[in-house]
Amino acid sequence: PRFVLRELQAVADSSDPVKQVRGRRGLDVLAELRRIKHLDIRIPESEVVSSADVDAKLVFLAASMRAKLLTTDYNLAKMAEFQGVPWLNLNQLAKALQPDLIVGEDVEVELLKPGKEEGQAVGFLADGSMVVVTAGRPHIGRRVRAEIVSVIPSAGGKMIFARLIDSVA
Description:
Blueprint: H1 2-12, H2 17-34, H3 54-65, E1 69-71, H4 74-83, E2 87-89, H5 90-97, E3 106-114, E4 121-124, E5 130-134, E6 143-154, E7 157-167
Parallel strand pairs: 1-2, 5-7
Antiparallel strand pairs: 3-4, 3-6, 4-5, 6-7
């Protein structure tokens, strides 16, 4: 809907660089979706007349259109569920489709910051899982190959501990 596009544009125009990147990525994804043959993307002109926030407007619009809501926003999904609107959390779908990581498997990860313990560095996999790499601190800012030594479930997904094999880039 137009109100979502306006919010996405506002986020892309934000002075906060993190928000700006997210907003631009959202606009890029919409452009990519439009290029997919046989995928009918429409921008409903209907406006939800109320001062409600965007999430409430989306749930109302989905309910009135008898549409399903696809989202990556956990809170929006829960609001839709409460209102009886069918929904699919795309992050959960992506996680369900990814094979489980196992001890002894190699992963490639960009190390972004120091870990809590001496010598550790932290990076993240595409699914958001945190990877703590032993002896990775000297390689912060680079991609490395690491061997998984343990996988621990956490509230935010999985926490993976790995040992450095070598620097990739």
